């Protein structure tokens, strides 16, 4: 471990598969990174890819697994001899949209915490619902339809909340809990997002919801940054009370609970700053300027961008910006990403990335007029060959390149529709380490692709948010740019402009073919 000379700032990220920590110093240098992987480190919860898949599109996570993961992560940090006493502020990021239902009477759960015991041992009875629905949950179509109908349609809902109704968005998830388990809802005192839940653990009482993460709920007015009553009322009764307040932009929530001071040696005045969503935190880690797009290739594929003057649409989400009160950010989220690419690799390239890459490089751009749209397994995929829908390409190895092209063409087209003239693309996430994949991305966007040396962008962004909150507590006028974060991105791929022209020629046909598919992959 690098020893920090002065103050440090801790950023966490409770993502789908792991809980990660990134410690940075006042010059934004990364001092330490640690993580807990749910499937491997906590096998007793029997998650796969960090989640439990139920019936009818239900996807949940045992909330106490997350609590245990925090115990384990802090223990790992302690074992690595991290100097807890230098940490001046803590913030976090988390997978968006997931909801946690705290049971009646849990408000001051911190009052009875003993530093002799783990949080896991002591928070057994704190949750009205054992299994939290998360962003992969697709079981709320009925609730989405009802919400859109109530407000006058998808575009009207997007105009207020930044997004049409999405199955994973928290308002629709809460409505389902209220309808299917009225007793659970009645027993719930506070509903947290995953980010505010994690912040609550550090505070020993409920943390407010961050407006940027809260923009992923279909409940918040993204222009006024307040709960929208007509949306709250359409989802469930007494919802405003159960959600509590909202905060933004590096707000100080309080000092860390004494449990952590006694058990791990944090300083008493270590600040807990508002925790945000993983996508907003990623935007912070990269300090985006106009014309920059981040393509994140992970469990879900997302495109993120800074937008100063956004117009809501029904294919992208507009969120409040996590550090700039006057701006917004755009998010396009594809609900399947790395699992689909792995599935294609396993089916058509002998489970080998090398073989997959060789095939991608040999196949000509455009796949000789083939387009494939893929779900996370073969059963919800379609292929179009010479204009007709076919069960399989005549040369099945074409699937390797086709799975990349259809995703990146869709991203490129949607960025243009949002009015973004992309100048640079920053590639992050697991697949960003694959050069063949990045070359296809560069050719389709027709712009250079940059990468960052750091891997955990969300926890890094959270550590910057912690530092922003620390500075603002001293001087409320401080802004994110005062952190002086340097652009450390490195050029990774230049586009081949001939290939880009080939792709530009395919756009119209692709756009027509992809219309029906949007509902499946952008839900
Ligand atoms: C965004 C989304 C995912 C999650 C998980 O809308 O659902 O990106 O935040 O990372």
Q: Proportion of β residues? A: 15-25%
Biggest β-sheet strands, sense, barrel: 7 strands, mixed
Shape: globular
How many distinct helices? Answer: 19
Task: Provide the low-confidence segments as ranges.
Answer: none
Helix content: 25-40%
Bound molecules: D-xylulose
Mean pLDDT: 94
Termini separation (Å)?
41 Å
What report would you give on this structure?
The protein has 523 residues and is of the alpha+beta class. Helices cover 38% and strands 22% of the residues. Strands 1, 2, 3, 6, 14, 15 and 16 form a seven-stranded mixed sheet that branches. A seven-stranded mixed sheet has the order 19-20-18-17-24-25-26, sandwiched between helices. A three-stranded antiparallel sheet has the order 4-5-8. It starts with 7 loop residues before the first strand and ends with a helix. The site of D-xylulose (XUL) has 14 residues, from helix 13 and strand 20.
């Amino acid at each position: 471990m690098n020893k920090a000379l002065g103050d440090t700032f801790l950023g966490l990220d409770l993502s789908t598969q792991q809980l990660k920590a990134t410690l940075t110093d006042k010059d934004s240098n990364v001092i330490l990174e640690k993580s807990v992987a749910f499937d491997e480190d906590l096998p007793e919860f029997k998650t796969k890819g960090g989640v439990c898949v139920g019936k009818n599109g239900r996807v949940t996570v045992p909330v106490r697994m997350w609590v245990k993961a925090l115990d384990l992560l802090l223990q790992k940090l302690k074992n690595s001899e991290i100097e807890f006493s230098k940490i001046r502020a803590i913030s976090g990021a988390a997978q968006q949209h997931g909801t946690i239902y705290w049971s009646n009477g849990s408000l001051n759960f911190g009052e009875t915490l003993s530093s002799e015991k783990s949080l896991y041992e002591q928070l057994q009875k704190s949750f009205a619902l054992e299994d939290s629905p998360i962003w992969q949950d697709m079981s709320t179509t009925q609730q989405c339809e009802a919400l859109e109908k109530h407000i006058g349609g998808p575009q009207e809902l997007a105009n207020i909340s930044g997004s049409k109704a999405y199955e994973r968005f928290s308002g629709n998830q809460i409505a389902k809990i209220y309808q299917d388990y009225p007793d659970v809802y009645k027993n719930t005192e506070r509903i947290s997002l995953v980010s505010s839940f994690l912040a609550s653990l550090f505070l020993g009482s409920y943390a407010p919801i961050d407006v940027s993460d809260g923009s992923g709920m279909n409940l918040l007015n993204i222009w006024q940054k307040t709960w929208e009553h007509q949306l709250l009322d359409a989802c469930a009764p007494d919802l405003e009370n159960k959600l509590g307040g909202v905060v933004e932009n590096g707000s100080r929530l309080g000092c860390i609970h004494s449990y952590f001071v006694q058990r791990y040696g944090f300083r008493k005045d270590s600040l807990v700053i508002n925790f945000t969503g993983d996508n907003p935190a990623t935007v912070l880690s990269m300090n985006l300027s106009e014309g920059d797009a981040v393509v994140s290739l992970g469990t879900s594929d997302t495109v993120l961008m800074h937008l100063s003057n956004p117009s809501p649409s029904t294919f992208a989400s507009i969120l409040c910006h996590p550090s700039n009160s006057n701006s917004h950010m755009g998010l396009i989220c594809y609900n399947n990403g790395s699992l689909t690419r792995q599935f294609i690799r396993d089916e058509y390239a002998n489970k080998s990335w090398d073989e997959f890459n060789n095939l991608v490089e040999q196949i000509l751009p455009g796949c000789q007029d083939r387009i494939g749209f893929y779900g996370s397994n073969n059963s919800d995929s379609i292929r179009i060959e010479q204009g007709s829908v076919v069960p399989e390409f005549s040369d099945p190895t074409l699937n390797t390149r086709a799975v990349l092209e259809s995703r990146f063409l869709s991203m490129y087209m949607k960025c243009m529709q949002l009015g973004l003239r992309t100048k640079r693309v920053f590639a992050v996430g697991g697949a960003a380490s694959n050069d063949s994949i990045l070359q296809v991305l560069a050719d389709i966007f027709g712009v250079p692709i940059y990468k960052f040396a750091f891997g955990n962008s969300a926890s890094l962004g959270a550590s910057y948010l912690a530092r922003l909150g620390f500075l603002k507590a001293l001087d409320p006028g401080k802004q994110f740019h005062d952190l002086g974060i340097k652009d450390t991105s490195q050029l990774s791929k230049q586009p081949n402009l001939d290939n880009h022209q080939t792709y530009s020629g395919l756009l119209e046909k692709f756009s027509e073919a992809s219309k029906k598919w949007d509902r499946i992959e952008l839900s």
